[in-house]
Specification:
It contains no helices and 26 strands. With about 280 residues, the chain is mainly beta. The strands form 7 sheets. Strands 1-26-25-24 form a 4-stranded antiparallel β-sheet, with no helix packed on it. The chain has a 4-stranded antiparallel β-sheet with strand order 2-3-4-5, with no helix packed on it. It is globular, with a radius of gyration of 18 Å.
Length: about 280
Amino acid sequence: MGTWNAEGNLTTGRYSNGSAGSSIADAFTWGGNNAGVLSSSEEYNGTSWAAGGSMGAGREYVAGCGTQSAALSTAGQNGTPQSNSEEYNGTSWSAGGALGSSRWGNANFGTQTSGATCGGYNGSSVITTTDEYNGTSWSAGGSLSVARYRFGACGTQTAGLVTPGWSASFGTMNSTEEYNGTSWSSGGSFPITSDSTAAFGSQTDGVGFGPRSSTTKAYSYDGSTWTAITDMNTGRYDSAGAGSDSAGIAISGVSAGTSTESYDSTPPVVFTPLIFFF
């Protein structure tokens, strides 16, 4: 079933932070809130976290995707919903293309040059909007079937997955959706109803974790069905995730302080003793 293992602590605990990374040792997080909106970022090397470059503008409920050396941050809020994006090159942030509309609580998937963001709250309503990024500018993609904000996403621009969030129509939800690069379709129902989930992995092998209604719970997805996996050691929600389906990391979140922990789904090696007959 896999295990959750403690990783190095962040320098600054945060929630509603953005994240990126293709592996545990490539994890990267930025922004969020800790008694105020943050612009700082931190990079992980598989053992410890170190300060990265500061964002051009601090924001919370920000979305992220990509890798530690090529991350993409979109929208979020700092008093008001934002429409700008920023790109990270492993050292510093620079301005990216502006979204067509402002929002916060949206979620990203894909890479810095082939990414997407969807959902969010624009200051008056929860939206279904999806925008796709080519490394320079944003263009309209297919609309979510169900508007949502404060949720997780993972996968690629042509094979994305979103986890439950909050909607004005349904409140908290258990619906998930899959993206094929053009349109969204219903995914398997999440085992519990909640919002504020996070995710890592892929559309056919992903992990959703940290729902606000049961903060230690985590579930794996095989492309059709969600299945409970081992509970996390530290409860968290409005968290961030990075890494692959078999080796991902949960980064901070409400109630988690500076805690990070990784998930290893690799089955344990079983040694069969050799029996010799004389």
